[in-house]
Amino acid sequence: MTPVLITPPALEPLTLAEARSWLRLDTGDEDALVSALITAARLAVERASGRLLLTQNWRLIGDAWPPGGRLTLPLAPVSAIAAVRVYDAADLAASLPLAAFRLEAQRDPPLLVLAAPVAGPGRPGGGIEIDLTCGYGAAPADVPEPLRLAVRLLVARWFENRGDIPASSAPLPPDVALLLAPFRRPRL
């Protein structure tokens, strides 16, 4: 299944004021940069940990239901299934009843189980769409503190070392990697 972001988080796990305080900035001269670093750090922490920090909506697009009706979800944590649709051969969407699915969100990775028979897709590619609500919660305080601290450390490191090392090619700093280790989802 291919995940597609539908609605990004409304907030970041670190406010601009918290970041400015952490960086010991007295003026707002670099607020645009600091805001961009906060977003980039969240994305880096999410990618490295395999966890979505704040509430956001995602769509999974698939071709067929898995054998046995058990779908391992590539996103975590998942709090709710918002909608499930299948497309017929004429590309018309039909919503499936949510009662036909059981979300096992406490598993790692989360599992979506077909609890009742459901229609299969009629088109060969992308015939299934599953809309999910993911993340630890809507507020920064809902995010586990080690993950928030990892965001703070990345923001500070990138702020202090601007242009020295391209962020995309540098490994995570050891202190950040240690904070993320308990949350990492192994890739299968």
Strands, helices and their partners?
Elements: E1 2-7, H1 16-23, H2 31-49, E2 56-62, E3 70-72, E4 78-87, E5 93-95, E6 101-104, E7 111-114, E8 128-134, H3 145-160, H4 174-180
Antiparallel strand pairs: 1-2, 2-8, 3-7, 4-5, 4-8, 6-7
Task: Describe the protein.
The chain is of the alpha+beta class. It folds into two domains: 10-53 and 144-183, Hypothetical protein yqbg (Orthogonal Bundle); 56-134, no CATH class. It is 27% helix and 23% strand. It has four helices and eight strands; from the N terminus they run βααβββββββαα. It has a five-stranded antiparallel beta sheet with strand order 1-2-8-4-5, with no helix packed on it. A hairpin with a 6-residue loop joins β6 (101-104) and β7 (111-114). α2 packs across α3 and α3 packs antiparallel against α4. The two termini are 14 Å apart. The mean pLDDT is 92.
